[in-house]
Amino acid sequence: MTSQPEAAAEEFSLLLDDQMCFALYAASRAVTALYRPLLEELGLTYPQYLVLLALWEDDDVPVKALGAGLQLDYGTLTPLLKRLETAGLLRRDRAADDERTVRITLTDKGAALRERARSIPAAIGDAMGLEPEEFERTRASLRRLTANVSARTASLR
Question: Could you give the CA distance from residue 106 to residue 114 in angstroms, rounded to a whole number?
């Protein structure tokens, strides 16, 4: 006799193409590859672009808040910030009221780069070939998936 968990496990395929994780991985790689030539023109990598998108939306933020918004840990975010600072796109300054807090602020050069990047979302959207409603449904599904998995992961800690 097969137990309940074993029976449920037998219903799922171990074929690579049947895995949600592989579909997400392949889609992520494909979309990131779309960005590469557009971002090379700006002298940016995809993770650096994400940092700038966050700062263009909300400038002068603590590193901790930026990392939380981007879902990046400190060890991943710090090298990105150092490279962007070296490129003259942002500044890292200790907060006057709390030396433990490092605030991130765009430079004029970093703020000006926003105009050069303005065409990127439309170019990526066109390349994806999704109708506006399908695009919104897909994004909403991915956000829900992220929230569900994050909540589950947090409950396992």
Answer: 11
On the 0-12 / 13-18 / 19+ scale of CB atoms within 10 A, 59 is middle
Could you tell me the pTM of the whole model? Answer: 0.88
Burial of 113 (C-beta count, 10 Å sphere; 0-12/13-18/19+): buried
List b or e across 68-107, with b for residues whose CB sees 16 or more CB atoms inside 10 angstroms. Answer: ebbebeeeebeebbebbeeeebbeeeeeeeeeeebbbebe
Q: In 3D, which of 55, 70, 54, 63 has the Cα closest to residue 101?
A: 63
Tokens representing 1?
């006799």
Amino acid identity at 12: F
* Residue/partner pairs of 147-156 with CB below 8 Å, 24 or more apart: none
Query: Which tens digits make up the pLDDT trace of 87-103?
Result: 999 999 998 888 889 99
Do strands 61-62 and 90-94 pair parallel, antiparallel, or not at all (unpaired)? unpaired
Nearest residue to 16 via CA among 26, 2, 7: 26
Alpha-carbon distance of 70 to 67, in angstroms, equals 5
pLDDT, mean of residues 108-131: 97
Domain boundaries of the chain, sorted by first residue? 119-157
109 close to 89: Cβ distance less than 8 angstroms: yes
